């Protein structure tokens, strides 16, 4: 959209992008595993088209293993191999390839403090269920796993440290921290908050009144491009820094999200958000976590938790059941970040994309049925008088 030659854009991933626009317009895709150094080397060594091969090189690192339900060291392996070592591998390959700048995607969850949901009788509120986090800065990237709410947040904090320390005059680096929940980056994407709810037809919830700072994936991409621009200008303030990016409006509550989905969802995909008691679900979460640990460590023959039950664990409460307010003032002041899409507008855009795909699938099915009936029509002989 900013006029870049698609031939100068290359996607490295395990799977081809579902959005075909880039590939159809001349961009390229290379199947790449960030945990495999040989796979990365092959991807970076592939020749570029002649007319773009002398252009400067920017690397946007958006790879992650994302699962908010784990907080025990027994489940760390995929987070370490993908989020930490994978980042290290890409950093090394980018430097070897002579990249000018490197912008990595982290998470605002690196700044969250672990809440205590069970206050003493004389305390009015549980500890740290209200958090104000300017720029989503963590207390320290060197804190142990137990100081973070999830394995994911801890691994992202370690990856941030690698990226920020790699910054120098020849190789400019930085980190973007998207806000509390990302939505809108392609309808069929399990990491999109709106898609998760729509694909499941809603969910029982205890979050109606919870305050959250969401961010559109399109706004996040604008944050990446703004950071790239600042790094290429060699602004001494920004190299090696991390910036939180948000939608350009005050935080909303989950009820606003639910209302938008309820009103705008296609009639063919109805959605519901029945209320359930928070404390009951929290106690259930602790029980499920113990079962999950028992199965992982000692009894792998036990049935695995279903996908929905996997997300009903205390770690998920540590990132979703808090009232959180971030700020992106630093990103606005330092890298010129300006987000154009408000949260409710972003929800509406995501819903339009969802509804259009539902309509397209319904039409395709209707056309197929119509063709089948036409094939079955038996021609009748002409009437004879």
UniProtKB/TrEMBL annotation:
<dbReference type="GO" id="GO:0000252">
    <property type="term" value="F:3-beta-hydroxysteroid dehydrogenase [NAD(P)+]/C4-decarboxylase activity"/>
</dbReference>
<dbReference type="GO" id="GO:0005783">
    <property type="term" value="C:endoplasmic reticulum"/>
</dbReference>
<dbReference type="GO" id="GO:0006696">
    <property type="term" value="P:ergosterol biosynthetic process"/>
</dbReference>
<dbReference type="InterPro" id="IPR036291">
    <property type="entry name" value="NAD(P)-bd_dom_sf"/>
</dbReference>
<feature type="domain" description="3-beta hydroxysteroid dehydrogenase/isomerase">
    <location>
        <begin position="7"/>
        <end position="110"/>
    </location>
</feature>
<feature type="compositionally biased region" description="Basic and acidic residues">
    <location>
        <begin position="365"/>
        <end position="377"/>
    </location>
</feature>
<feature type="region of interest" description="Disordered">
    <location>
        <begin position="365"/>
        <end position="385"/>
    </location>
</feature>
<keyword id="KW-0560">Oxidoreductase</keyword>
<protein>
    <recommendedName>
        <fullName>3-beta hydroxysteroid dehydrogenase/isomerase domain-containing protein</fullName>
    </recommendedName>
</protein>
<dbReference type="InterPro" id="IPR050425">
    <property type="entry name" value="NAD(P)_dehydrat-like"/>
</dbReference>
<dbReference type="InterPro" id="IPR002225">
    <property type="entry name" value="3Beta_OHSteriod_DH/Estase"/>
</dbReference>
<dbReference type="Pfam" id="PF01073">
    <property type="entry name" value="3Beta_HSD"/>
</dbReference>
<feature type="domain" description="3-beta hydroxysteroid dehydrogenase/isomerase">
    <location>
        <begin position="148"/>
        <end position="262"/>
    </location>
</feature>
<comment type="similarity">
    <text>Belongs to the NAD(P)-dependent epimerase/dehydratase family. Dihydroflavonol-4-reductase subfamily.</text>
</comment>
């Amino acid at each position: 959209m900013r006029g870049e030659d698609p031939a100068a854009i290359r996607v490295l991933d395990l799977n081809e992008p579902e959005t075909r626009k880039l590939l159809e317009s001349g961009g390229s895709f290379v199947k790449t595993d960030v945990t495999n150094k040989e796979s990365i080397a092959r991807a970076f060594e592939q020749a570029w088209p002649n007319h773009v091969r002398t252009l400067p090189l920017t690397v946007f690192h958006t790879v992650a293993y994302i699962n908010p339900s784990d907080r025990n060291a027994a489940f760390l392996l995929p987070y370490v191999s993908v989020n930490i070592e994978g980042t290290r591998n890409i950093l090394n390959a980018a430097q070897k390839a002579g990249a000018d700048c490197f912008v990595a995607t982290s998470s605002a969850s690196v700044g969250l403090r672990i809440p205590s949901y069970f206050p003493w009788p004389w305390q009015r509120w549980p500890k740290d269920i209200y958090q104000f986090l300017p720029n989503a800065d963590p207390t320290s990237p060197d804190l142990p796993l137990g100081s973070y709410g999830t394995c994911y947040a801890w691994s992202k904090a370690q990856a941030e440290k690698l990226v920020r320390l790699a910054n120098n005059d020849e190789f400019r680096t930085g980190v973007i921290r998207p806000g509390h929940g990302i939505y809108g980056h392609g309808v069929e994407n399990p990491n999109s908050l709106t898609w998760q709810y729509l694909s499941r037809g809603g969910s029982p919830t205890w979050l109606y009144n919870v305050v959250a700072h969401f961010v559109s994936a399109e706004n996040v991409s604008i944050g990446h491009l703004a950071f790239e621009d600042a790094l290429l200008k060699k602004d001494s303030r920004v190299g090696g820094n991390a910036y939180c990016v948000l939608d350009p409006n005050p935080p909303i509550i989950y009820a606003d999200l639910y209302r938008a989905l309820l009103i705008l969802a296609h009639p063919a995909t109805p959605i519901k958000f029945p209320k359930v008691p928070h404390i009951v679900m929290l106690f259930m979460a602790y029980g499920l976590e113990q079962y999950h640990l028992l199965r992982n460590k000692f009894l792998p023959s036990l049935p695995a938790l279903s996908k929905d039950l996997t997300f009903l664990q205390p770690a998920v409460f540590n990132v979703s059941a808090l009232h959180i307010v971030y700020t992106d003032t630093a990103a606005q002041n330092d890298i010129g970040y300006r987000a154009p899409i408000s949260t409710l507008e972003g929800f509406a855009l995501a819903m339009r994309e969802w509804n259009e795909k539902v309509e397209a699938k319904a039409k395709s099915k209707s056309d197929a049925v119509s063709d089948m009936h036409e094939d079955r029509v038996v021609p009748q002989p002409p009437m004879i008088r």
